[in-house]
Specification:
It contains three helices and 13 strands; from the N terminus they run E-E-E-E-E-H-H-E-E-E-E-H-E-E-E-E. The chain has 137 residues and is α+β, with helices and mostly antiparallel strands. Strands 1-4-5 form a three-stranded antiparallel sheet. A hairpin with a 4-residue loop joins strand 8 and strand 9.
């Protein structure tokens, strides 16, 4: 699961000397933060600089929040045709041959007799008429 930090706009000043507010003491270089609720606190400079930047630089983030991932539509499965290389929906794909319906309707030549037949009539490289008959049992 992915998580993102909610946008939080605070007022902050960098301390030049040790300062005490509400019984807490900040060291020189720390930041004194005033939260939107009015609550005040200190944050180490390294943590503050890693997590905050001037509000005018993040306006695009707060104005255009990330889309809700739950609302994404599922991707439709597509098959790759071995004949033409096109991506086709499963209902237009013949699994036995690995080809799309359009490729199976193409006219091709039999490698054995040279006859022009539809692709779906070819088995291997020969048309059905050229295929040797199986002995009956």
């Amino acid at each position: 699961m992915r998580y993102a930090r909610k946008p939080l706009v605070v007022d902050a000043i960098k301390l030049m000397s040790a300062t005490t507010v509400n019984g807490m003491t900040g060291k020189p270089g720390d930041y004194l933060l005033t939260m939107p609720t009015g609550e005040m606190g200190f944050m180490a400079a390294s943590m503050f600089e890693a997590n905050f930047q001037p509000a005018d630089m993040v306006s695009a983030v707060t104005e255009n929040p990330a889309p809700d991932l739950a609302e994404e539509t599922p991707q439709k499965t597509l098959m790759i045709c071995l004949g033409c290389g096109a991506e086709v929906p499963p209902e237009e794909f013949e699994r036995k041959t690995g080809m799309c319906v359009n490729c199976l309707k193409k006219q091709v030549s039999c490698h054995n007799c040279g006859r022009t037949v539809f692709q779906y009539e070819i088995i291997g490289t020969m048309c059905r008429k050229c295929m040797p008959k199986q002995p009956s049992m």
